[in-house]
Amino acid sequence: MPSSEQSMFSKIALSAVSILSSNLRHLLSFLMQFVPGLKNSLPSPSKEQFTLPTLQCISPLLQTVEETPEPIPAKIKGHIPKWINGNLLRNGPGKFEFGEEKYNHWFDGMALLHQFQLRNGTVTYQSKFLQSNSYLMNNQHNRIVVSEFGTLAMPDPCKSVFARFMSRFDPPKPSDNANVSCVVYKGDYYVTGENNCMYKVDPETLEMKEKVDWTKFVAVNGATAHPHYAPDGTAYNMGNSYGKFGTTYNIIEVPPQKSNCNETLEGAKVLCSIAPMDSMKPSYYHSFGMSENYIIFIEQPIKLNLLRIITSKFRGKPISEGINWEPQYNTRFHVVDKRTGKVLPGQWYTKPFVTFHQINAFEDHGCVVLDLCCQDDGKTLAVYKLQNMRKSGADLDQIFGSVARAFPRRFVLPLNVNSDTPVGKDLNPLSYTMARAVKDSDDKVWCTHENLHPDGFEDFGGLEFPQINYSQYSGRRYRYFYGCGFRHFIGDSLMKVDVETKNFKIWQEDGSYPSEPVFVPVPNATAEDSGVILSVVISPDENRSAFLLVLDAETFRELGRAEVPVQMPYGFHGIFSSR
């Protein structure tokens, strides 16, 4: 038989086997519903048996892409409401190697800034790599010369063996790769990571304006990428400081306005400092909660082993190797009064969990109600290595199966607890939540969460990247939040959750991966969910365009999409800049 005919025959045979296999699986599934005992009588698959993959390979969404420095028009399908006028700014990793050297972790990639500009029903797109010092130095040497979270920069191969060894004792170059989020201080837009430096950018052009170092204004070694904002524009953030007196967690306050046009973080101050349970093993945190009058800091058992981090370069290890999940410690809530800068004396604890993103916090009847996305296992950071995320088939299924899912939960922290407070009694006075708070004999308050989701929510992979109608409902009692469902390493659906009924709505499309939802309110709206959800949707299929999705936030139905013929990697966080 000629080789061309053999090839055609092989394709037909493989196709037939695939169809038969699929039909057989559906037939068995159907029979198991009606034939008692059939499921138990079927042999259990052994490790050697072939298992059809269930997860799509997303490796194309975790690769280096080209920037799009000049705006290009998007193709509109459906309609984009004309009242939406502004820029959706997004941030995330977009370059994963320099020369022959490759990054190890998803968090390491160089920052690529994206902008979707919406004007009177039209949309344009552009993207630019942040010209950080780390990016420029790596580019100049055509190799990785600045270490990142999960990648240790190797010594210059042109140096002698002795010089390469001695370079391990040199202080590491701090990275300024601001690839996590877009934030606002004093009306200016910045891109930021979790290190000392941010970059001020022009939201209209994505041009970098200025590098700003937190340490020049306040005694902290970096800050989170998730500040909170008071109604008057005052910004609050958190950052650690490391000194001769040990480690402290610090609440930072940044004034809302400039006294002159050249200001950046002038006037920032440390509002409050909190001592960790172990000064050599402070907790890692990605965000914090804020109600109208209080800051809520969650001290969780993901620990920064400072000795291991300080010696990581000498030991030939990346910084990520110094972060450990230590579930022998419970999670503690610290509550700080924003008005006085004082830490409240109460001690609130719960079982060990990990949170990266808070949903909202508000006050009611002498309590702080805190909603956040929680995982019961803190090993997630170690799993998000690029070699894991780029796997396919059964290998991908197996590694993703080890990732803890995040679920929305509610805690109630009663603030007025003293020596007269009865022991063993539930101190939650709120009828609309089943969360519990019970004082123990040692004066600690043990908090038990309420799930903010219905049974079966696990089938959608849990929820992360939560967002609310922030401008109107941050720090207030609210009803709706939005997020990404995670049945993969990255978001594969969008959700709207009603915290009162626990019902949810979902948007999903096969082979599509939406970004963090951003809520944009209708001007002068009174209803909480009167607005739209913006999300950037990408696909590993090179024949499908990326697009900006616009959903009606109330009905969660698609209004329109703006397609652009551009390859985009999956990013982290963003913000809408209105005009």
UniProtKB/TrEMBL annotation:
EC number: 1.13.11.71
GO CC, one annotated term: mitochondrion
Residues noted as binding Fe cation in the record, renumbered to the chain: H226, H286, H357, H573
Coiled coil (residue ranges): none
Keywords: Dioxygenase, Iron, Lipid metabolism, Metal-binding, Mitochondrion, Oxidoreductase
Enzyme superclass (EC): oxidoreductase
Domain of life assignment: Eukaryota
Main location: mitochondrion
Cofactor: binding details: Binds 1 Fe(2+) ion per subunit.
Cofactor(s) in the UniProt record: Fe(2+)
Enzymatic reactions: all-trans-10'-apo-beta-carotenal + O2 = beta-ionone + 4,9-dimethyldodeca-2,4,6,8,10-pentaenedial; beta-cryptoxanthin + O2 = all-trans-10'-apo-beta-carotenal + (3R)-hydroxy-beta-ionone; (3R,6R)-3-hydroxy-10'-apo-alpha-carotenal + O2 = (3R,6R)-hydroxy-alpha-ionone + 4,9-dimethyldodeca-2,4,6,8,10-pentaenedial; (3R)-3-hydroxy-10'-apo-beta-carotenal + O2 = 4,9-dimethyldodeca-2,4,6,8,10-pentaenedial + (3R)-hydroxy-beta-ionone
Cell location: Mitochondrion
GO biological process, one term: retinal metabolic process
Short name of any one Pfam family annotated for the protein: RPE65
Gene Ontology molecular function: any one: beta,beta-carotene-9',10'-cleaving oxygenase activity
Oxidoreductase keyword on record: yes
Keyword field contains S-adenosyl-L-methionine: no
Family to which the UniProt record says this protein belongs: Belongs to the carotenoid oxygenase family.
Chain's role: Broad specificity mitochondrial dioxygenase that mediates the asymmetric oxidative cleavage of carotenoids. Cleaves carotenes (pure hydrocarbon carotenoids) such as all-trans-beta-carotene and lycopene as well as xanthophylls (oxygenated carotenoids) such as zeaxanthin, lutein and beta-cryptoxanthin at both the 9,10 and the 9',10' carbon-carbon double bond. Through its function in carotenoids metabolism regulates oxidative stress and the production of important signaling molecules.
Name listed for the protein in its UniProt record: Carotenoid-cleaving dioxygenase, mitochondrial
Source organism: Phasianus colchicus
